[in-house]
């Protein structure tokens, strides 16, 4: 009753708006909605399929890029491993050379001390020989002086 009362006082524009907003009959509504629903579902499925395919392609490209990066990193790791091995070998060689040089230095230091000691002894012997020579020369001078006169 209330609906009829409202419809009596509607303007033409309000009537048209109400007509388009009204609920269609069950027959009209069911067939159209079913057809629209099927079309919409088909379009949605196509869009989802296209989106899934695009996502798969993008994920494949990302995976390929990551695999390439992993391969490059593995190659770089191998290169660094080889360089490290070479450096360790060189380090060992240098440490051996340092030990040899230290040994030589210690030997030369010992020899130097020995030579300094021998030099000191030779200087002492030389000084003693000079003193002996000087005494001999003095004695010879005295002998010559006494024999000569």
Q: What can you see in these coordinates?
A:
With 149 residues, the protein is mainly alpha-helical. The chain has a domain at 45-148. Helix content is 94%, strand content 0%. It contains three helices and no strands. It has helices spanning 2-8, 12-21, 26-148. The radius of gyration is 58 Å and the shape is rod-shaped. The termini are far apart. It comes from Actinidia chinensis var. chinensis (Chinese soft-hair kiwi).
Keywords summarizing the entry:
149 residues; mainly alpha; 3 helices; Transmembrane emp24 domain-containing protein; membrane
Helix-strand pattern, N to C?
HHH
Continuous helix count: 3
The count of strands amounts to 0
Distance between the termini: 184 Å
Protein name: Transmembrane emp24 domain-containing protein
Biased composition (Acidic residues): 24-35
Keywords: Membrane, Transmembrane
Region (Disordered): 21-47
Lay out the secondary structure.
Blueprint: H1 2-8, H2 12-21, H3 26-148
Brief overview:
This is Transmembrane emp24 domain-containing protein. This protein has 149 residues and is mostly helical.
